[in-house]
Specification:
about 170 residues; alpha+beta; 3 strands
């Protein structure tokens, strides 16, 4: 296409629909035009496929699993998940009680099924929040599965004979 501001030509790469939308005069002034289709490359045999995206677990399933497991280290993550579900209108807080240890226990009810979730309120500090946030994100991404362990190679055993260095005297 001739350059309207000076001498020479201007290159324009247009899709088929955009080319069809050009005026007849613009199509006539084009010096060259072509159309082609690029096929996606076929996978080579023996080549690995790309990993599928991880299956995300629902916050409710993770909360159920955490409460069933009963590990006190999961208390902060369970509390944050319960708050997320309450904010998303999946759980409703029915009662707040205090146990013998002085901890506040929130009793949440799932809308629809009526299932109850007792969640202890942990002592949270603002410095702990980034770690808790990472833990909750990890739980939602992977669930409660333990990460796969990498098998370690065994070290070669020490040689049974020792080589001693002997100093020879000169002379």
């Amino acid at each position: 296409m001739p350059d309207p501001e000076g001498e020479g030509f201007v290159r324009q790469d247009l899709c088929a629909a955009c080319h069809a939308a050009l005026s007849a005069e613009a199509r006539r002034s084009a010096s060259a035009a072509w159309a082609f289709t690029v096929a996606a490359p076929e996978p080579r045999p023996g080549r690995r496929r790309e990993a599928e995206p991880p299956a995300h677990h629902s916050a409710e399933d993770v909360l159920r699993a955490l409460l069933e497991r009963g590990d006190p280290r999961d208390g902060s993550a369970a509390y944050v998940l319960a708050l997320l579900l309450e904010r998303g209108k999946r759980l409703t807080e029915r009662q707040v009680a205090t146990d013998a240890a002085g901890r506040r226990i929130h009793l949440y009810e799932q809308r629809g099924t009526g299932d109850l979730f007792p969640v202890a309120e942990p002592p949270l500090a603002s410095a702990d929040l980034p770690a808790i946030q990472r833990r909750v994100a990890e739980l939602l991404e992977r669930g409660l599965r333990k990460p796969a362990r990498v098998a370690r190679r065994r070290r070669a055993p020490w040689p049974k004979t020792l080589v001693r260095r002997v100093r020879r005297s000169r002379g």
